[in-house]
Structures are given as structure tokens and as C-alpha cells.
Amino acid sequence: MTRGTPPMPPPWAEGYGYDAFGPLAEIYVGDVCQRFRWAPPGQFMMGSPNDEEGRWGSEVQHPVELTAGFWLADTPVTQALWAAVMDGNPARFKGPDRPVEQVSWDDAQAFIARLNTQQPGLALSLPTEAQWEHACRAGTDGPRYGDLDAVAWWEGNSGGQTQPVGQKQPNPWGLYDMLGNVWEWCQDDKRNYDKTTQTNPMGSLDAGSYHVIRGGSWNGLARYMRAAYRRAIPSGRDDHYGFRCARVRS
């Protein structure tokens, strides 16, 4: 898969450039920076093969084609960024560089709406489930993009709490904490997989429906720390629910 080339500099970004992971763009809220990484368009295998350890039956493997690239935050939203936008901090495990948690899907939508209002033209959203898995895999095809302890904070190494973002090994596209630390809300509800090729697939967007969470968390089992693992839950708050922002328009 080629990385593609997004428009550079993105008109919404306050900082931009290239490094070993490819294109990057940055926004600022006060003195808090959020970096974004480019996820190119292309095809990938979504779900897991039948012999993957820890797989669930809802992970039927199938080809997915995403026709447009998008930008994805390189970390979950931190408590510093949340506080800069929302003037508060709901997290149980306090620390400016830790991911914000105790946030529901509706809370994430409120944060994004306020940030988009503060910075016209930004047009952030949550990623869809397909976009999230595409970005998590970053061209890889195994259960995860590196050794478990190297890439994820999970029940076996987290010390029973979240940890500051960006400490673990990133994936090949420069995205940190895609597995572990906090579950990440996706925009859509869980759809039923089959083996046919899907183009830009998306579950229900009904605000009252269930919503997918991905990636596992600080108190999760190893089987949850896989690119294919998926759950759908109602919008609610807990100390292992967080999110990261996407910009779907290049």
C-alpha cells in the first residue's frame, strides 16, 4: 500500500511537515498541541482470520476499500487538551498527559463540536470503525502492530491505571496508543460483517444507538489488544473510555 499524498500544508493546520512516519499536521488550543497523522486511502483486510488467538465470531475477515484518506490524531485526547477546550477534567486518573477518560460518546461529540466552533474549518469528527482499524493496522496484517508489552498499556503492565500517552512504540504511521490505555469511541454502531468486499463501510449513525469502542484499555485482557477486536455499547462514562479525533476531509 502506498501512503498517498495529502494536500500540504493542510489549510486547517497551524503546523505541518514530514518525518520518518510520513506527513504530519498540528493544531493548537492555547499552548496544547495535538498532532495528526495521515492515513492513506486503500484496501485492507478488516476482521481476523479464523486461527487468530483470542478472536470472536463477529470478526469475520473481509476486504475493505477506503476511497479517501484522512487525518487521525496521533494520541487519544489528553486531559490537557480536554481542559483547554471544555474547562474541566472528568478523569479518574489525573495527569495532563494522560488520556482523558470518564467520557461518553456524547461527551466526545460535545468536545468535538466545541473545538470545531472555536476553530472554524477544522471539521473534526470521530473515526468510523473501518477508519479506526485501517489506521490501527497501518499496513500490518497481524493481531497487533508489535509485541503486546511494547505497544500497549494493558492489565499486565499498566499498574492498574492509565499512563501518559505516547510512551509506547507507535505503529508504522506514527500513531500511539491505538491499543491499550483507553478504549476509543468510534462514530458508528457495530455492523454485521460478511466476507464480501465493502467500500467505505459504516454502521448506524443514530445518536441513540450503540457505538463501537476499539483498542482495549489499561485494565483489559490481552485478547482485547488486537486490531480486530470490537465491542458496541451505549453512550456511557467509565474510567477506561476515551477517544481520539479524526479529520476526514483532507
Describe the protein.
- By secondary structure, the protein is α+β, with helices and mostly antiparallel strands.
- It has a single domain, classed as paralog of FGE (formylglycine-generating enzyme), CATH 3.90.1580.
- Helix content is 14%, strand content 21%.
- The chain contains 4 helices and 12 strands.
- The strands form 3 sheets. A 5-stranded antiparallel sheet has the order 1-2-3-6-12.
- A hairpin with a 2-residue loop joins β1 and β2.
- The two termini are 18 Å apart.
- The mean pLDDT is 96.
Summarize the structure.
The chain is of the alpha+beta class. It has helices at residues 79-86, 105-118, 129-137, 148-151; strands at residues 15-19, 22-29, 32-39, 42-46, 62-66, 70-73, 183-185, 198-199, 211-214, 230-233, 241-242, 246-247. 14% of the residues lie in helices and 21% in strands.
